[in-house]
């Protein structure tokens, strides 16, 4: 009998010892059984994916995430939240339903689908959202930070349905709902040291995951790494791609009527290399229709990075512009080639109306093709398949 007690003591002691040793593989089983049961090998709390210390090229200098630094733990929780349909009132829509990894975390339809039908816009790509001086989000910039933006779709009646209006449950009801999910109890404890779920914690985790989604493995990046600045010819580019780069970077020269007589086409005035982020001071770009193609729509001045406009197969990831009415790169280039001053557009960016006239870039067919070829070099491949940005479920 005494021998049995000793053996029982040693068995219990061994379990406790294993539980206290984070390197022996038992911590997941003892401390986080629901994470293990739900996610299997997709999330290993002892061996997290690298979100916090990814390689960033030395020529990339813009960073809007310093107030909420990425951690491996926080981004892991953010990944689960991003893909979890429980965050919608109908358990049918997740953030990832509209921000699809296969489309550079954008949506390939004109208007995204929410719990109550189509929404007012298509979801913009989230590629390299961290690497921008623009801190506002949504097409109309109504969210002052990414953190604030992350829960606004959840609290929208049309998108994810926890609005607290129109008969919807409230965001607090969502928190109550998540409190009943065992793997969230463990994840919030794992990340924050407490099972308590709050909106701020959800916002911070989602924002960390989104800012971790980066793409720097493009043909452009391979060429940029070999030169001192963007204005030098890239040795890995074709002559056409280098021409397109020069056109993109160089400002145009106009005559008094707004007609281009020399120089480039000035895309970089608003879409600034090497991040290709949108200048926060940009105004309307000449697109004034609503999502249905009619009416004045002047306040939508946000744009995602121009990186990963197309996927590795050269197919456009999302329809273009805030209205989604531009179906391809040729049409987008054509729009900027000839800017017409539309009645009622009091918010047109000054860079598009030299001398008070709508710009006429007068691009040749060869120049348009070169500009398109350059834009395609901004696309990578890793972001579409990397498992750390994929669904953990």
TrEMBL record:
Domain Cytochrome c: start-end pairs: 73-182
Gene3D superfamilies according to UniProt: Cytochrome c-like domain
Keywords assigned by UniProt, alphabetized: Heme, Iron, Metal-binding, Oxidoreductase, Peroxidase, Signal
Protein name stated in the entry: Cytochrome-c peroxidase
Pfam families xref list: CCP_MauG
Coiled coil ranges: none
UniProt-annotated location(s): Cell envelope
PROSITE patterns noted in UniProt: CYTC, PROKAR_LIPOPROTEIN
Any one GO MF annotation of this record: peroxidase activity
Primary localisation category: other
Top-level taxon in the UniProt lineage: Bacteria
InterPro entries according to UniProt: Cyt_c-like_dom (IPR009056), Cyt_c-like_dom_sf (IPR036909), Cytochrome_c_Peroxidase/MauG (IPR051395), Di-haem_cyt_c_peroxidsae (IPR004852)
